[in-house]
Amino acid sequence: MTGATPSADLPVADLGDATLLPGLIDSHVHLAFDPDNRSKQTMADEDDQVTLSRMRAQAGQQLDAGVTTVRDLGDRHFLAASLRDRDAAGTKTGPEIVAAGPPITRTRGHCWFLGGEADGIAALEAAVEERIARDVDVVKVMATGGVTTPGWGPHQSQYSRDELAAVTRAAHAHGKPVTAHAHGRQGMADAVAADVDGLEHASFFTEDGVEPDWKIVAAAVEAGIFIGATEAWLPTGTMVAPHMAERVAQRAENFARMHREGARLVCSSDAGAGPRKPHGVLPYGVIRFGSLGFTSTEALASVTSLAAQACGLAERKGRIAVGYDADLIAVPGNPLQELERLLDVRTVIRAGRTFKGP
């Protein structure tokens, strides 16, 4: 700050007693998912216009909460990429979108209903090439099963290490990063060995509990792999079944240790996955990071500068600096003293255009 009077040609807004921050970045969302619909499989036959309408509305919810960039890690028919391209064409009515398209999964594997089924190395390589042709920003692969899709448990590996390596080789040959959905320990180990760029969830789930392997974490730290800690959810209501709640609590403790051991933990939401994960819930994750031993500065970086790195946008997002995108938010008071201030976003500026506030 120089103290100089701004040019009379520039619009000036008085935000009062507020802190200006970079716009938040949610590096794991599903704009196509209705969080209140637990049976996501019904999307398999949904009309694209219905899906797109919901995606636009939910992108607006993200922006209203101060999230100016989202990385969509699973949609149908590459619809997130179409919204991204609309934004790039100049309308900029929602957050910037980093798009993965349909995640690559086994036949009837986790999130099969999004259309990304592929079995075997040749099919996996073809799936990557299809995504390159559709100009995705990142390739998402389901290394393990998940919670919301019957058939493959979250602890079960869906692909071998060689198959995952085929995905990363094909994507990296085109300069595209790969992030792997990985709940199970073996799936995590194979994904790290396969040279992925990111691990989503990193839960260390077994069939009936949680068993972390700190050698895998050390390998991820050494490789500089980003770990997407999907720790953002509403503080009220039932998020998961009781047996899963215990696992989620243990996973949080593991994230705290990962942080102490130097892991690059990015706070994200998995928005759309369930009723306690509506779109725009990311600020609650920042508060949760603070409860896990992150300093306020570290917690905020996990959804700004570090998240920008994870999404390949570090050269223009995640900071307030000359030459960076004018994606800004303002909250009352000082969030470094009280992270809960992020729940009261008063001003949202996206690409220099004010969407909320004076």
Q: In words, what does this structure look like?
A:
By secondary structure, the protein is an alpha/beta fold. Helix content is 32%, strand content 17%. The strands form three sheets. A five-stranded parallel beta sheet has the order 5-6-7-8-9. A four-stranded antiparallel beta sheet has the order 1-10-11-12, with no helix packed on it. The longest helix is centred in the last third of the chain and has 19 residues. The protein is globular. The relative contact order is 0.17.
Report the major sheet: 5 strands, parallel
Strand content: 15-25%
Q: Quickly give the structural class.
A: alpha/beta
Span from first to last CA?
Answer: 22 Å
| Low-pLDDT windows of residues | none
- Helix tally equals 10
The helix content is: 25-40%
What would the average pLDDT be, to the nearest integer?
A: 94
State the total count of DSSP E strands.
12
Strand order of the largest sheet: 5-6-7-8-9
Write the element-wise H/E pattern from the N-terminal end onward. Answer: EEHEHEHEHEHEHEHEHHHEEE
The shape, in one word, is globular
Radius of gyration: 20 Å
